[in-house]
Design a protein that fits this description.
- With about 375 residues, the chain is of the alpha/beta class.
- Helices cover about 45% and strands about 15% of the residues.
- It has 14 helices and 15 strands.
- Strands 4-10-9-8-7-5-6 form a 7-stranded mixed sheet, with helices on both faces. A 4-stranded antiparallel sheet has the order 11-12-15-14, covered by helices on one side.
- Helix 3 packs antiparallel against helix 12 and helix 4 runs parallel beside helix 12.
- The chain is globular and about 60 Å long.
- The two termini are about 30 Å apart.
């Protein structure tokens, strides 16, 4: 970074300070990871200079022959890694990826989304009222059972009553294996699309250490950071089941991205995603992902042995959600204290939390 150091020493020093911080602490926030040097190098290339509205071989600007190849490589690698017939790699992050799906399939003010409540581990973009997804579309929210696990009988009853157009499964603070087959049965019963948002477990799915939703869902979205260890970005995938339900899904999603939500893609990001997907296809990555799950389960067992109350009683993936109410401390204080000790995680609400969101009763961590 010699050019940066010469041109803007202030930003250079801040970048170096963050690099030092990341090396010296235990980064244990589930939505973060350490991207490889190759992923970071691809992100900082001259591809930043290019503008490429449209899709490969169909752009609104000239000079995109190389960019077309880059995007096609990323698409092909994602299709092969996840076993899907279609993928869009242009979404700038997970939130616009989910919004693109809703925009593609639903009429504003009429279409209905059914997702897990934010207070129980869902994501803002799964129809929460604070999000545009809950403002532009109708939404209903399901909850976890008293045991901190998915209550499929209650979810099915709610789906039959509400008749949503899209059911969202895949969560932001759920430490257990997701039974996609049960969600598919419910979605098929009420005629809904099943959207599997695997942003947190995408790398685990790719490595085969978490069941894949591809045989059960119509559409799959994932961010490319978190367990995939790539840059900030997202994939929107349509499965064979999705194509059978609606052969126009790829066209609808492509159109939802541009001109619906975005202009040109970030080509440097696309290249970096392609690199991450290649890494995720390796034997080394599969070994890494398997070890992540083993580490999580070992940490969960140790925490339980030390008297900590884990939501759902443990972990099947990379994530652990700790309810601190039996320790008489809230998650905000715990997260601050742990950062002082060099352990970085995040405060988080827990099921049936009575504390306000900024001072929740739990913390969320990763192995």
């Amino acid at each position: 970074m010699q050019n940066l150091k010469k041109t803007d020493p202030q930003i250079y020093e801040l970048v170096k300070a963050e690099e030092k911080r990341q090396k010296e602490v235990l980064e244990m926030i589930p939505s973060e990871n350490y991207a490889s040097s190759a992923v970071i190098e691809a992100l900082g290339t001259v591809l930043t200079n290019k503008y490429s509205e449209g899709y490969p071989k169909k752009r609104y600007y000239q000079g995109n022959a190389v960019v077309d190849e880059v995007e096609s490589v990323a698409q092909d690698r994602a299709k092969k890694l996840f076993g899907v017939p279609y993928v869009n790699v242009q979404a700038h992050s997970g939130s616009p990826a989910n919004l693109a799906v809703y925009t593609a399939l639903l009429q504003p003010g009429k279409g209905k989304i059914m997702g897990l409540s934010l207070a129980f581990g869902g994501h803002l973009t799964h129809g929460q009222p604070q999000s545009s997804t809950g403002k532009f579309f109708k939404s209903v929210l399901y909850e976890l059972g008293k045991d901190g696990k998915l209550d499929f009988k209650a979810i099915e009853a709610q789906a039959e009553k509400e008749k949503p157009d899209i059911i969202v499964c895949g969560f932001t603070a759920y430490p257990r294996t997701i039974d996609f087959a049960k969600f598919a049965k419910i979605a098929d019963k009420v005629g809904a699309y099943l959207l599997a948002d695997i942003s947190h477990i995408g790398g685990l799915v790719a490595a085969g250490v978490h069941p894949s939703p591809v045989s059960f869902a119509h559409i799959v979205t994932t961010t490319t950071h978190k367990t995939l260890r790539g840059p900030r970005g997202a994939l929107i995938m349509v499965t064979e089941k999705g194509l059978k339900k609606n052969p126009d899904l790829p066209k609808l999603i492509d159109t939802a991205i541009i001109p619906g939500l975005q202009g040109g893609p970030h080509d440097n990001q696309t290249a970096s995603i392609a690199v991450a997907l290649k890494e995720a296809s390796s034997a080394a990555f599969k070994k890494y992902a398997a070890q992540v799950v083993k580490n999580s389960q070992a940490l969960a067992e140790a925490l339980t042995n030390h008297g900590f109350d884990l939501v759902s009683g443990g972990s099947d993936n990379h994530l652990i959600l700790i309810d601190l109410r039996n320790k008489k401390v809230n998650g905000a204080i715990a997260a601050l204290a742990l950062e002082v000790a060099g352990i970085v995680l995040n405060k988080n609400g827990v099921p049936f939390d009575t504390n306000p969101p900024f001072y929740p009763s739990g913390i969320r961590t990763v192995s």
